[in-house]
Amino acid sequence: MSIQMTTVGNGNNSMTPVVVNSRPDDIRKRVIGADTQTKDLSRCGNILIGLSWVLVILTMPFSLFICFKVVQEYERAVIFRLGRLLSGGAKGPGIFFILPCIDAYARVDLRTRTYDIPPQEVLTKDSVTVSVDAVVYYRVNNATISIANVENAHHSTRLLAQTTLRNTMGTRPLHEILSERETISGNMQASLDEATDTWGIKVERVEIKDVRLPVQLQRAMAAEAEAAREARAKVIAAEGEQKASRALREASEVIGDSPAALQLRYLQTLNTISAEKNSTIVFPLPIDMLTYFMRASEAAPK
Q1: Distances (CA, A) of 292 to 9, 262, 277, 282, 296
Q2: Fewer CB atoms inside 10 Å of the end CB: C or N, the chain?
Q3: Cα dihedral value 138, 143, 149, 152, nearest 10
Q4: Band domain: which residues (predicted)?
């Protein structure tokens, strides 16, 4: 029984490592073309294995430099014996043993890789041509499957990422592409992760870097935004004028009810005028006399 590391998503695109036990038979079932039952090697194969052991013993200690291999902490070694996957799954990290002439192995890097998707010309759902580029973060989740099921897992994942980006952007209008980047990135990550599971690849994250619009469309959107800002500015100015007129009407009602308030407002206006400019203002009649004549005219019989 071997122990492998798998990852489980927690809802916000972050991956939590989980240790699970997996048997070599389970791994072989996921390998395309592998038998579901373990078969004994042929008589010829057993003879070759015996001869290989004899060769190792006769050439010791020089054969030890060929038989013992070391892989790093972030690597795994997939061993093929006479063209068949060796039972026990991928080896490593650390030291492992191979037989000369009949064993071949491949190193697999388990570290996360970054692929910068080149800009893709996409026709959106509302018939607008845009240029979109993105970044994909992925890693090898199962070393054995990534070697046995696909010729080049990294190259296949990158080509699939380009196609998925074009297909996803082509089904959405322009305003959704500009405003819902996180949702689109999550959908792309789920689609890529599902498609690359049989390749032993785990897509951890997809991020849309930039969306480039045509120059004519940029100018049209800028003009539309400027017109919208001007319309909002006019509405705000009109609301301010309306509030100011209401305040002036209320002030006039208060001043009309109190003659003393009118005189105080008159004196305040004189103070403001004298503070702004050095000028002399001449009034031929006092304001109290004007008020007396106004009251006399109102009291005269008609």
Answers
A1: 89, 14, 31, 20, 6
A2: C
A3: 60
A4: 66-225
Residue 10: C-alpha distances to residues 110, 157, 204 (Å):
21, 23, 12
Q: What's 197's DSSP letter?
A: G
**Which residue matches tokens 């990550």?**
189
pTM of this structure: 0.61
Whether the CA torsion 271, 272, 277, 282 is positive or negative: it is negative
Q: In what order do the strands lie in the sheet with 84-85?
A: 84-85, 75-81, 103-109
List, as own/partner pairs, every contact residues 13-18 make where C-beta atoms lie below 8 angstroms and the sequence separation is at least 24, other chains included.
13/186, 13/189, 13/204, 13/205, 15/202, 15/204
What is the C-alpha separation between 192 and 190, in angstroms, rounded? 6
CA distance 195 to 160: 9
